[in-house]
Amino acid sequence: xxxxxxxxxxxxxxxxxxxxxxxxxxxxxxxxxxxxxxxxxxxxxxxxxxxxxxxxxxxxxxxxxxxxxxxxxxxxxxxxxxxxxxxxxxxxxxxxxxxxxxxxxxxxxxxxxxxxxxxxxxxxxxxxxxxxxxxxxxxxxxxxxxxxxxxxxxxxxxxxxxxxxxxxxxxxxxxxxxxxxxxxxxxxxxxxxxxxxxxxxxxxxxxxxxxxxxxxxxxxxxxxxxxxxxxxxxxxxxxxxxxxxxxxxxx
Length: 251
What we know:
Number of strands: 12
Strand content: 25-35%
Order of helices and strands: HHEEEEEEHEEEEEE
Shape: globular
Helix content: 10-25%
Distance between the termini: 24 Å
Largest sheet: 12 strands, mixed
Radius of gyration: 19 Å
Number of helices: 3
Structural class: mainly beta
């Protein structure tokens, strides 16, 4: 399956969606399983610790999938302010969140939905659309899904490399890689990845190269502690009933 086939499987509705050193060894044989497991566990713990900022300070996140799907978001979960701009194949969707209010405007031609600012009913938003300030659902970069899909990893200072099972990343904010008509390529279960931590141990980049028939994808975090000011759109109308079934990956 080609990279184009995988990217094409990201439907327009899906795109509304808006994460140490090893013990020394000698010889040419493989590392003992216990050593490899310990190295991976340590690297994963570093990555998890590197995302604790999500619940503690404001930040910017950038997601890029094959230069065809991009998301730029500014998030302040502490003060409940967030905005995001999603560009997919030349169409833009904007989302603003203030306290418990969610506003959206999209250039996508969704049946029964206009192009003006809409005010969403949070109770009707499907769970896989994941627009929330609640812990576990408040990272537009979706770092937790990436970290949980890691198969093996090792850390070399602030740099972490290894393999990730892209079939396990699942649905949610950030990087979404959907299978094509013939499913995922075989190599998707052990795709390479690399990540970088900053001087304060925060995750600042997570990259998946274009290999095994999968497109390249990157997630970056920056602007830690920068104030996030979000204005309520003037004239926002209640979102029509037709919108909600078209949100998320089940749309």
